Amino acid sequence: MATTNDFWDALNDLAKEKNISMDVLIETIENSLLIACKNNYGSSDNASVDVDRSTGEYHVYLAKTVVDEVSNKAEEISLADAQNIDGKYAVGDVVKVEVKSRDFGRIAATAAKNTITQKIREEERKVLFEEYYELQHKVVTGVVTRFSGNNIHVNLGKLEGFLSETEQVKGEYYKPQDRIKVYIVEVKTSNKGPRILVSRTHPELVKKLFEEEVTEVRDGIVEIKSISREAGSRTKIAVWSNDPDVDPVGACVGQNGVRVNAIVNELRGEKIDIVEWDENPAYLIENALSPAKVVAVVADADEKSARVVVPDYQLSLAIGKEGQNARLAARLTGFKIDIKSETQAKEAGDFLDYEDEYYDDEEYYDEDEQYEEADGEYSDEGYDAEDSVEAEDLPEEE
């Protein structure tokens, strides 16, 4: 029996709206009609469905064997009835008899409808999963919609992202309708459809924000070689330029700091240190401890460890508040860092190792670059090897 044009048009509209293939919908209708046959006649082994994919016209047939006496109406047809269709039929022939779908019982029709509905729902979930799976490990903008305990649901368009308490930055507070940028950590399937896990603490969030804000990073001229982050407080990134005419640090900072400030604002005031990457681990470690000035660095690439000497008045700055600067530098470089002041190095008998690399204090000291919080935070007891930061001992960043 042919479908109406209205039904076919509605099917096309549904395919476009849900972004589902028409082939899938037609196949679903075919299967649902076969299920209806099975529910109505007890079997669908002899049933077939023909659908004209250009007009939407469909027909349901049962293949029946011509017999003298019918004992199974679903599988057999009398010789007289067969010859009414075509006089050439004889006993033993198989006749395709059209079945009117309106003759299906209520239970059969309901089962067919449920099959179509379920398949459409499955295909919709599949399409949404594929769409958002492509956004995995990217940054998107969402709108805070609701809260479940300390967890937050973020509207990402067609689906919601789940921002768990552990992926939120301490000190950041949100209210409904706040627009925030989040990093999509994972997209996975569930019984209720795609589940999207997002983060505000992931180091890759900062990297992706730089890719959005800095053209040179987006184009691959400037590379972010390494990144370490303590979300909500401070991030260090090491950058490298593939073009000798492009200053990687300057490109990321932008004129008057406009580029990095845009990212800082998005991260609600999180401080960002941008340092230049260097293949020489000693220079890289020196850069990573910025803004502290370094007298000398002796790095052991095999042991992934380094001894660093800083001016006495730079020790607390090199260590940072609660050890943060040294800790982030260790993560950024992957080296265990043992920081000593010049006085401590001399007292330990290590200073001779650094004499050839000694620099005058005046060359390194810049009061404007000091961390405000460093003043008075630390005594001259220093930060010896027993208190040094080992990258492998730190929690791994996902």
Features:
rod-shaped; 398 residues; N Utilization Substance Protein A, Chain:P, domain 4; single chain; GMP Synthetase, Chain A, domain 3; disordered C terminus; alpha/beta
Oligomer: single chain
Order of strands side by side in the largest beta sheet? 5-6-7-9-8
Which architecture of the largest domain would the CATH scheme give at its second level?
A: 2-Layer Sandwich
E-strand count? 15
The low-pLDDT segments are 355-398
- The gross shape turns out to be rod-shaped
The first-to-last residue Cα distance is: 58 Å
How much beta, percentage-wise?
A: 15-25%
**Tally of individual domains:** 4
Radius of gyration: 35 Å
Structural class: alpha/beta
Helix-strand pattern: HHEEEHEHEEEEEHHEEHHEHEEHHEHH
Question: How much is the average pLDDT?
Answer: 83
- Largest β-sheet summary: 5 strands, mixed, barrel
**Discrete helix count:** 13
How would you characterize the overall build of this protein?
- The longest helix has 28 residues, at 106-133.
- The protein has 398 residues and is of the alpha/beta class.
- Residues 355-398 have low confidence and may be disordered.
- It has 13 helices and 15 strands.
- Strands 5-6-7-9-8 form a 5-stranded mixed beta barrel.
- The two termini are 58 Å apart.
- The protein has 4 domains: 5-127, N Utilization Substance Protein A, Chain:P, domain 4 (2-Layer Sandwich), CATH 3.30.1480; 139-199, OB fold (Dihydrolipoamide Acetyltransferase, E2P) (Beta Barrel); 202-277, K homology (KH) domain (GMP Synthetase, Chain A, domain 3, 2-Layer Sandwich), CATH 3.30.300; 280-398, GMP Synthetase, Chain A, domain 3.
- Helix content is 33%, strand content 25%.
- A hairpin with a 2-residue loop joins strand 5 (139-148) and strand 6 (151-155).
